[in-house]
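Hi X.,

You mentioned you wanted examples for the new student's onboarding notes, showing what a folding record looks like when two proteins sit in one file. Here is a clean example. The first protein comes first, with its sequence line followed by its structure tokens.
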Amino acid sequence: MAGGPAGGSGVLGPRPGRAWRARAGFGARVRPCGRLTRMNRLAGATSPYRLQHADNPVNTYKSTVVKKNRCVRINYAGDCHVDIVPHLILPDGRQVIVNSEVEEFEETNPEGYTAWMKEKDSLTGGNLRKVIRLVKYLRDSKDTFRIPSVILTALLGERVQVYDTGNRYSGVPTTLVHLVEDLAAWLALNPLMPVIVNPSCPQTSFNHRWDQDRYANFAKHIQSYATRMRTVLDEQDKDKGVTLWQQLFGDGSGHPPLRQRPPSPRPGSRPRRKGSPGRRRRGSSRRWVCSGRVDAGPGSKPVSRTPSAPGPRTCAVPASPPSAGTCTSR
């Protein structure tokens, strides 16, 4: 890359002097091509790595980034956020994260935690992750209890059993009820907050992130939610069950309305022959519009026809009408 105004590489070379930056304008940089660019707060850094990002538009998304105690949270639209936890590998091989509140290292094991989560999730047929999201939604929407997400994940994950998994974790509602009931029973046996071990680092615990008052409040509400969830799961009336689930999680938890089926053929219309290409009848104002690519199903038959242009054309036509949800009518 061509050298900058102060000599050296335009990326990793020496930082331009203050006089040159003053001539270029406050908060701006002149690139080797002569284009003036706005600089962020990294422009005053001395690290070559940080200087590479001195003209990145970081301030554009500054309002969406929140610095937490151990992580950086990025907020997205629709009440969605992602927590990014930086970790370090010390010279002695230990992996740690930074607790900025007390300015201390905390041991961590990202690979071990991922392996633990995959093992527990596989026992539930992939339903553990969904249950954790549902309980988090219950926590955030109802605001009846406070619990860090990492502790909630550990408590629910450790309740997964290795027996009778086919019945206990056959679906999301069943998995939710069994895990919450097992968690409520475990909490009842431990009125005082026990040591909550990090599943990937047995020598560390999460107790310093919680306290006894919040633990007792969490236990009380989990017991109540477990009773209500069991009532909903045992409800035989489907419509009433949906209403009870919505009362439990809130009105915004309902499933989206189902798409309407295409209209039935008009009385007296000629039935379509099996395997026919389904051409539009002359004078008809209705036609099928498919939202995606339609692949030939098992009942498809290749149909050859000769169009007006020279050369045969072959297409695969399904033997049944379009299914609801993939096509609409106009």
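Then the second protein repeats the pattern, sequence line and then tokens:
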Amino acid sequence: MTTDKIHNNISLVRGAWSVVAALIIIPLFFSACSKPKNEIVEGFKDAAAVPTLRSLDVLTFISDSGVTKYRITAKEWLMFDNAPDPYWLFPQGIYVEKFDPMFRTEASIKGDTATFFKNRQLWRIDGNVHIENVKKELILTEQLFWDQRSRTIYSDSFIHIEKPEEVIEGIGFVSNEQMTNYVIRQPQGIFPFKRAAADSVAADSSGAVAVAPVQRTNHKIRDKQPEKSVSKK
């Protein structure tokens, strides 16, 4: 075999291998280009800070031993079941009604925000808290705690109570759930008061209760049980 023929054979072999390589590489290239780009999404670093459920425009009833006791109305309800102390948060306000066995309203509470600690069965309601009891007394404060286990409502904040004939003000109180039997820890004054004949509280055109703003207090906020030494009337 001459040198020219050897070179020709080598060229043919190289050409054949080039064609084979092209047939293998080109499909792989187009296949790789056609696949979508995948990105790794990192999980939440703090699962406790992420709500496990979010509900809007909430209207729900809560029962105890098969009897409907409460009705809750709220614009937003966030559940944080993964938190060390699981809780529900109502960041856009809350309105709670408590019913007697005949499904009549015994008391109502509303506030700017509310937190319910599930394991402790403890409510904390903050900001422009309004309470009205069956006696049509209006109680105003900036923060209160409602312990469903001990069936007590209490606060360390300033409190303003409007009765049909007088106004009572003070710092801190403890009461039953109906807000009909309460003790003010630091009374500051009792003032004569006469409500308008139309109603116990004036209402604006939207139906919202119109009341004077409640002064704020710098007293320490707590979320524990009231002291046992506090006596009730």
